[in-house]
């Protein structure tokens, strides 16, 4: 009886330790996210301006499978994950009026700046803002706002958080866990354009893409040296890194059919 009790106590102790480790990991992840958010100065005007904007969507889950209907046409839809201040999406959208765009970020302050950048860019060209929407959402749960009916043509991932610590790798926007989610709404043959300053993230991402059923169409370890790689729009982060002498890595990947093993 004493032997059984000892085993039970050991089991309970081990179970407690496992739960403790999980809690500690969760707290560490929350702290990392909070650090990122705290570095972005709060902007009291952002939320009211977003709510008043005609091209801000506060309830993206309501449009899952219905984004084409929201745009009111059948133009291809491209998505930017983590749009930040909107320097990329504002230029990309105005230069490609035959394409619809959706830009996603998690922070109101960033989306507020993105909204203003889009307005400034379109006003300068005297164009109506009718091919771009911005929305606030956690990209880890992106499957809640898009479906295969949305038939997304392309995804842009520009300078996402590299999450360098091993236990945080699954939070990377190019991790296998995320890439498999994108497959659910990226059309067959659809593409992902990815660029980063982080060497480790880029090397790991090459493996992530291949293991998730994507074909690497092209890649470069120095985007500046290959001006014809794609129609590049330099972001604020990109210029900052290049001024520091850091080379920008980039790749183009295409969704391929995953062959089931017999």
Molecular structure report:
By secondary structure, this protein is of the alpha/beta class. It folds into two domains: 1-39; 44-255, Vaccinia Virus protein VP39 (Rossmann fold). It has helices spanning 2-38, 46-52, 67-71, 87-95, 108-124, 176-183, 199-211, 236-243; strands at 56-57, 77-81, 100-105, 132-136, 152-158, 186-196, 214-220, 249-255. An eight-stranded mixed sheet has the order 1-4-3-2-5-6-8-7, with helices on both faces. α2 crosses α5 (108-124) and α4 (87-95) runs parallel beside α5. The N and C termini lie far apart (51 Å). Residues 16-27 and 29-39 have low confidence and may be disordered.
Secondary-structure topology with pairs:
Elements: H1 2-38, H2 46-52, E1 56-57, H3 67-71, E2 77-81, H4 87-95, E3 100-105, H5 108-124, E4 132-136, E5 152-158, H6 176-183, E6 186-196, H7 199-211, E7 214-220, H8 236-243, E8 249-255
Parallel strand pairs: 1-4, 2-3, 2-5, 3-4, 5-6
Antiparallel strand pairs: 6-8, 7-8
């Amino acid at each position: 009886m004493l032997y059984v009790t000892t085993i039970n106590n050991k089991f309970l102790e081990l179970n407690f330790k496992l739960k403790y480790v999980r809690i500690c990991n969760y707290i560490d992840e929350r702290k990392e996210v909070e650090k990122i958010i705290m570095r972005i100065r709060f902007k009291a005007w952002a939320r009211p301006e977003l709510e008043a904007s005609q091209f801000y969507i506060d309830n993206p889950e309501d449009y899952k499978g219905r984004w084409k209907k929201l745009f009111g046409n059948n133009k291809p839809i491209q998505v930017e994950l983590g749009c930040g201040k909107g320097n990329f999406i504002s230029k990309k959208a105005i230069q490609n009026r035959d394409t619809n765009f959706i830009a996603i970020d998690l922070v109101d302050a960033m989306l507020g700046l993105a909204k203003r950048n889009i307005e400034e860019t379109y006003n300068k060209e005297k164009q109506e803002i009718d091919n771009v929407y911005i929305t606030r959402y956690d990209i880890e749960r992106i499957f809640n706002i898009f479906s295969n009916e949305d038939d997304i043509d392309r995804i842009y991932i520009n300078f996402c958080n590299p999450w360098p610590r091993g236990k945080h790798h699954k939070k990377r926007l190019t991790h296998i866990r995320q890439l498999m989610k994108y497959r659910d709404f990226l059309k067959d043959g659809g593409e992902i354009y990815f660029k980063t300053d982080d060497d480790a993230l880029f090397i790991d991402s090459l493996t992530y893409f291949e293991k998730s059923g994507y074909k690497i169409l092209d890649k470069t370890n120095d985007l500046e040296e290959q001006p014809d790689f794609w129609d590049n729009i330099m972001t604020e982060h990109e210029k900052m890194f290049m001024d520091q002498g850091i080379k920008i890595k980039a790749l183009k990947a295409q969704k391929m059919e995953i062959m089931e093993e017999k």
